[in-house]
Structures are given as structure tokens and as C-alpha cells.
Amino acid sequence: MDPLLKAIGQRKPVSFEYRAPATGTVTARSVSPWKIAVRHSGWYVVGYDHEREAQRLFKLSRIVGKVGRAGKNVTYEDAHDIDLSALDSHSARKSHVAVIAIAQGRGHGLRARSVESSFAAPAGFDAREVQYFDPIEFSEDMAALAGSVVVLSPKDLRDEVVKRIAQVALITPASPASASERNDQEGHVE
């Protein structure tokens, strides 16, 4: 967040790679950042997207890699009349409710934006209901909390979270087995 705050203070445009919430596609973006805002339990940079030629919100957790400078001696005027609700695509989308189980003593931020649920939760977990707007984004958030959060309902959201966790497991390299472990697995004895 520091490079963005510095760029906002100096009114300097930045560039970064950004993962699209709907497709997961990563694209290069050049943005004149105006402010940092908290919306729907996430941190966003608000600014002018030069590729899209429009004002946009960018979720910080979707920025891939480092934020760099765009244009050496370019500056811009600060936008004082930003209407975040007009930029916020959540306001135009249908909301959904998920039933989740949060491990006791964990997920304080998620607990703050959820309510108790009458669903049965696994031992050591509390059942909660939470509102969300973007199923893809929410499934990514829930997958990132694996071990602390379990999606109980709806089934399609639960299936998506399980799929995302399985994808991560496939790309996470396993630790290399020692020679004796490989021999044991192959039936060899040293």
C-alpha cells in the first residue's frame, strides 16, 4: 500500500498487474490513484484507469506483484468530487447470503460482518450467515481462509471453494522425498 499512498501524495500515476474478479485474467493497468478506501470489507485504490479511460475501483488484494511508476514526469490533478457509490459495482449487483462456519477464536473481521446462524457447525466452529455480492470473489476469499472457515451453504459456493483449494494444492510443490523415502516407496531396501 505504501507505493500507492506515496503516488497519491505526489499525484503520480502508477502501473500494476491486476487480476480481474470475474475471469482471473491478469492485465497491465496504468492508473492515476486518487485515494484509498475501505468498501465491503476490502481495501481499494480509487483512480482513473488510463486503459479503460474511466474512473475505477481496484481491490488491493487483486494487485499482482509490485506497484511501479507510470510516466516519469507526469502528474495529474486530484479528483475532489469522487462518488464511490457510482463506482461501486456492488450497489448494482444482487446480494447473496452464505452460511459459513468460523473456527472459534478466528475470523474476527468476518464475524464482524456476519450474524449468528441456526445451522449446525462442526465442533470448534460457530455457524454464521454473511452477505456477499460477487460469488467468484467471495469463493476466493473463503478459500484463502481454509482451515479457519468452512462454507456450509449454498452448495454451489461450497463446491467452488473446494475447487479453488484443490487447484492451489495442485500447484503447491511437494517437498522432495529423501532417497531413503523414495526407495521405501519403490520397495527397495538400502
Mean pLDDT equals 80
End-to-end separation: 54 Å
Helical residue percent band: 25-40%
Helix-strand string: HEEEEEHEHEEHEHH
From the alpha-carbon coordinates, what is the Rg to the nearest angstrom?
21 Å
Largest sheet: 5 strands, antiparallel
Overall geometry comes to elongated
Judged by helices, strands and strand pairing, the structural class is alpha+beta
Strand content: 25-35%
Q: Give the tally of β-strands.
A: 9
Tally of helical segments: 6
**Order of strands across the widest beta sheet?**
4-3-2-1-5
* Unreliable sequence segments: 185-190
Task: Describe it.
The structure is a single chain. This protein is α+β, with helices and mostly antiparallel strands and about 190 residues long. It has six helices and nine strands. The protein has helices at about 1-10, 85, 110, 135-145, 155-170, 180-185; strands at about 15-20, 25-40, 40-50, 55-60, 65-70, 95-105, 115, 125-130, 150-155. The chain has a five-stranded antiparallel beta sheet. A four-stranded antiparallel beta sheet has the order 7-8-6-9. A hairpin with a 6-residue loop joins strand 1 and strand 2 (about 25-40). The longest helix is centred in the C-terminal third of the chain and has 17 residues, at about 155-170. The model is unreliable at about 185-190 (pLDDT under 50).
Write the layout of secondary structure elements.
Layout: H1 2-10, E1 14-19, E2 26-39, E3 42-49, E4 54-59, E5 63-69, H2 84-87, E6 96-103, H3 108-112, E7 114-116, E8 125-132, H4 135-144, E9 149-153, H5 155-171, H6 179-186
Antiparallel strand pairs: 1-2, 1-5, 2-3, 3-4, 6-8, 6-9, 7-8
Helix pairs in contact: 4-5
